[in-house]
């Protein structure tokens, strides 16, 4: 014979007290059907994924509980493995499998990707025909974006926030793939922080991979989000002449709904060139940096609306 049952209101009050304690929420799911119904939306609202061994298996097990998917609103992925720090982890293929299934989360609004903040690519000697292998970090990044580019283009996806931390400043076919677009068409917030080649002999103006990343991959990302973006953050780890004039493509880019613009270590053009091209805006939102004559942040009515901006 069952004992007295707690009123539903009291059970809901209990769940509301532990909404930030995921372990307790998961235990409540096992206590009773009523608590399971109340706890599940809170327990799976945020999904934290890593490459620790078994993460992919756990996701596959979770995939049998299809009602869980609709409660996930935020996914945070952290990949910490580097050449110098190796641990037991899921394979690249296993991790890519998870990202190829992202469309199952029909109410997903935020996707954050955290990659190792290191550049580990081996330098190719110009006198050597041997192409060095790509690093585990770059292999993972390519695999993840290729997986995201396999999403069904008819998916009714409404992602609002995409953050990519420590993206390698190297070409990535998945990013520029047209099939990556369904993930971008509804974005309001886009954050990209970049890790650049750190070898002593690196010269950005002559590096084809670096130039391709900024002028093709990054530009492609922004053009596909231009109509909906309200907040944009682009951050480089070195002073980057990504938008150096003349670059007619970047000059033609407009972000009509942009309200917040944050740029760190991005050099657009020379102060003299800017004053020549946009004389009316030259006195509004132009920042010279020392005697170098370059602009690290431009903000005015010459292409984007910028009520809020910051300069790093």
Automatic annotation (TrEMBL):
The lineage of its organism: Eukaryota, Fungi, Dikarya, Basidiomycota, Agaricomycotina. It comes from Gymnopilus junonius (Spectacular rustgill mushroom). This is F-box domain-containing protein.
